Every structure is written in C-alpha cells, then in structure tokens.
Amino acid sequence: MKGSVGKGYIQIYTGNGKGKTTAALGLALRAAGHGLSVVIIQFMKGWIDYGELEGVKMLSPYVRLHQCGRDTFVNPKSPDPEDVRLAREGFELAKKVLFEEKPDILILDEMNCAVMFNLIPEEEVLDLMERKPDGVELVLTGRGATERMMEKADLVTEMREVKHYYAAGVDARVGIER
Q1: What is the residue extent of each domain of the chain?
Q2: How many whole angstroms from its chain centre is CA 154?
Q3: For residue range 17-45, what is the model confidence (pLDDT) as tens digits?
C-alpha cells in the first residue's frame, strides 16, 4: 500500500555534526519502502565515489538522485563561477521538480551550504519554501542553515559533533562516510 505525506512539511537538518545527508537518505529509504516517490538533488557534489549513488540505483524507480556540482570542494570565500552555474542549474531543477513533478519527497542536499557559500540567494530559497505545494515533503540539509530558513521550516534538527574520529586522523571510509 502506497503511503502518503499528507500536507507535507519542511524539514531542515543542519549543524556541524555528522549525519545530515545520512538522515535524509534514511528518510528516502523509508519512503521508498512505502512506495513514495523521492527526488534528491545534491548541491556542491559531483561524481565522487559516494556509496549513495549506487544505493539509490537499487531504490529505482522510487528514488532518483541528481548531482549539481564538481568533484572538488567549493571555496566558501571565493566560489568558482562553475560552482555558481552548477548550483543555479540545480536550483532551477529543484523548482521544476517541486512545482511540476510534485514528488512525495524532495531532498535538497547541501542547500544550506549553497546559501552560506553565496551560490544561491537566501531569498530565493525562502520563496521556494513559501510556495511549496501541499503534498510534498521538502527536506534541506547542510551546515549553516540561516535563522530565516529555520523559522520557515516545520522541523529543524541540529546535528552536533560531540566526538569524532576524524580528530584522531581517521579518513572517510568506503561504505561508512562515502
């Protein structure tokens, strides 16, 4: 039996701790298990050996993932024009998906960072949040969610780093962090 998101709410996963994208992907997995449609748009992420790329293929046709970024880090103080172009492309895709396709769930992964790095203006994201149609759950992830974005959201979860093995020199591990 297909589930339903009902009205659909706006969720934000933010903070300096690990697990924001992972939480959103867990939501996508749960939704797929109930036959819901999920579209994930990843900002500032290009093809890197992320396990979720292969995992999402296994959830097809319920979950689709689009990456809108290069396979390198974005300089927050001086983003490359290509990073701005790719983020803009991703945001236009997000609007099209939200207002035309109207999936059950739309996840905008690293959207908060895209705003923080001045790739997408905060006002445009606030407008998107304001105009979200009923029946779509909208999830925004990434560090640095603005106060105004958090005020507009229905649910805000802050991931807080208490202890992390990166401090001991452990690199990102295949299947765990990537």
Answers
A1: 10-161
A2: 16
A3: 999 999 999 999 999 999 999 999 999 98
Which DSSP string do the residues of 22-80 spell out, in sequence order? HHHHHHHHHHHHTT--EEEEEET--S---HHHHHHHHTTTTEEEEEES-SS---SSS--
Sorted by sequence, the CB contacts under 8 Å of residue 63 that are 6+ apart come out as: 28, 29, 31, 32, 37, 38, 39, 40, 56
CA distances from 174 to 16, 42, 118, 171, 178 (A): 21, 19, 30, 10, 5
DSSP state of 162: S
Is residue 121 a contact partner of residue 87, using CB atoms and an 8 Å limit?
A: no
pTM over 0.90: yes
CA distances to 51, 52, 57 from 45, in Å: 13, 12, 17
61: left (phi over 0), alpha (psi -120 to 50) or beta: alpha
Query: What CATH architecture is 10-161?
Result: 3-Layer(aba) Sandwich (3.40)
Do the Cβ atoms of 67 and 46 come closer than 8 Å? Answer: yes
Q: How many CB atoms lie within 10 A of CB 151?
A: 10
